TrEMBL record:
Residues 413-425 have a biased composition (Basic and acidic residues). Residues 410-434 are annotated as: Disordered. This is MFS transporter. The keyword Transmembrane helix applies. PANTHER family: MULTIDRUG RESISTANCE PROTEIN MDTH, RESISTANCE PROTEIN MDTM, PUTATIVE-RELATED-RELATED. Keywords: Cell membrane, Membrane, Transmembrane, Transmembrane helix, Transport. It comes from Microbacterium nanhaiense. InterPro entries: MFS, MFS_dom, MFS_trans_sf, MFS_Transporters, Sugar_transporter_CS, Tet-R_TetA/multi-R_MdtG-like. Belongs to the major facilitator superfamily. TCR/Tet family. It is a multi-pass membrane protein.
Amino acid sequence: MASSTEQIARTTPRDLPAAFWWLWSAQLVVWVGRFVVPYMTIFLTAHVGMSATQAGLVVGAYGIGVVISTLVGGTLADMIGRKRVLVGSELLSVVALVVIPLINDQLFIAVALAVYGLFNGTGGPVISTMVGDCVEPRHRRTAFNYNYWAVNLGFAVGPLAAGFMAEYSFSILFWAQAAVVLVSCVLVIFFVPETHAVTARAERAVAATAKPPGRAGLLGVFADRVFIPFIVIMFLYSIVYVQSTSTLPLVITAQGLPSSSFGILLAFNGALLCILQLPTARLFNRFSRNAVIIVAIAVTGIGFGMHAFAAALPMYLLAVGIWTLGEMGSHPQAQSLVADLADPERRGRYQGVYGLTHSLALAVGPILGGFVLDHAGSQVLWLSAAGLTVIVCILLGLTAPARSRHLSTMLQRDAERRSQNRNSDEDPSLSPVS
């Protein structure tokens, strides 16, 4: 059952503050408008006239921009405020999206996409940081499940709409996404408070009794002997997970299945996430996050291992259904755990470093997976992926006691800050929905 160090509560939508629901709405809007990224390679080859190799280099530059922005965004969120960074990155993204279709030179388009990547990756860790700020620890698990649900709900709609727009004009993709990001930005500007200010007030109120934070800035995060092992382990898991969008379509088409089969699998994955994410969250919340994450990753490993024996669409659907159940338990639970493990005054940096591991996995995973696929075949690839999840589960189990002890300390510090904050000038928009 749930560890005594974790604050477990039956959470209803009314228990979550208004600020969270506006953030949730802004996140949903952004992901519904995720038009450009899924069609970036097609845009570069069919519309701009680049070769596949050139397009790959440009997409790689975009990816590097995203990697940098996740870390820098979290750091800036701690230094100058969450809301300022989120609004600034979204406005700069809008400018880049509007300008790109107006450029004719291939080099300038490549540079503009790389710059867009620098802005586009900032929002994720900053929103996660703000959720951790404004939601009480006992409700965070449910809040991050709602957040993950918004991402998947939006992504289920966005690429489908983008496909119809791309048939008419690729320029519309960029301008439509710019309009959607602008709507999200307006929601944040007018309805979401600066959550970092609340944390800062609480920190000053308990400064005399709080434990010294140790090393400042990113050095303090990388010196955290509990947090860093956790994200390294989760990085190994992410390398496995990204095979679902990198090597899986290659294996399916090599087996003679039509490319539409992969689209069916993605749609099936998205549908399951949209339908089952919230019901399963209620079940998962009864147990400790360490246990849920370990079991969920083990289930993910079973699903990926089943790909080694799949040769027809029904078997692939069964395998995807199994690892999707694992995805429901691993990703949002891990993200809420990061929010609770983080030193409150450096929560943005913690979320940025955690986001960095996923971005790096997106770069490293396809390379490793492609190498194994080329030199050893698909069966070895999938069985190796399943074996790596076993290693991940063992490492998570060995490090779980240290996380539980650290979690107890950080939740106590968070409670002290929030207690002081309730006695100060708390922003009413951070109160639960009435």
